[in-house]
Write a structure and sequence with these properties.
169 residues, alpha+beta, Ubiquitin-like (UB roll), DNA polymerase, domain 1, 2 domains, five-stranded mixed β-sheet, 5 strands, globular, 2Fe-2S, metal-binding
Length: 169
């Protein structure tokens, strides 16, 4: 069965017809030509497909496109504004927080979400004092980014890049 939906992707409304079983990832990549989110495991375990869905990080391989008709989707491609890189993108470049680059779009989107969650005071599993404002420590970043895997093991640079971007907020 097919359904007509509209997705607002990186600031642009896009209308399309999809099979009701189509994942958001496949709709973005195969139907709309947005190859920023990557298909890694296709099971929600690697984070390569991470996007911002209505402002919160989400695994697009696990989301059905029809369930998000009218949603605001931001990919790593849509983070830059007016020719200026997003602070997270800039920090990833400055810290050399990528190697092969396959996971980078998902890492970047996840980092943007992590920084927003942190700014809202959301604790993580490693937050020691739940009554205080969390600190953007190495352990906090590592825990919050743990759903995004990097086969090249660029974590040593990813964690400080996220901390740098958070400090600019």
């Amino acid at each position: 069965m097919d359904a007509d939906i509209t997705l607002r992707v990186d600031g642009e409304a896009r209308r399309l017809t999809v099979d009701t079983r189509t994942s958001l990832l496949d709709a973005l990549r195969e139907r709309l030509g947005n190859t920023s989110p990557k298909k890694g495991c296709d099971h929600g375990q690697c984070g390569a497909c991470t996007i911002l869905l209505d402002g919160q990080r989400a695994l697009s391989c696990l989301a059905l496109a029809v369930a998000h008709d009218g949603a605001e989707i931001t990919t790593a491609d849509g983070l830059a504004r007016d020719g200026e890189l997003h602070p997270v993108q800039r920090a990833f470049l400055e810290r050399d927080a990528f190697q092969c680059g396959y996971c980078t779009p998902g890492q970047v989107c996840s980092a943007v979400g992590v920084i927003e969650e942190f700014a809202q005071g959301w604790p993580s599993h490693v937050t020691e004092d739940l009554t205080a404002d969390p600190e953007m420590t190495h352990d906090e970043v590592a825990e919050r980014m743990s759903g995004n895997l990097c086969r090249c093991a660029a974590y040593v640079n990813i964690t400080p890049a996220v901390q740098d971007a958070a400090a600019q907020r």
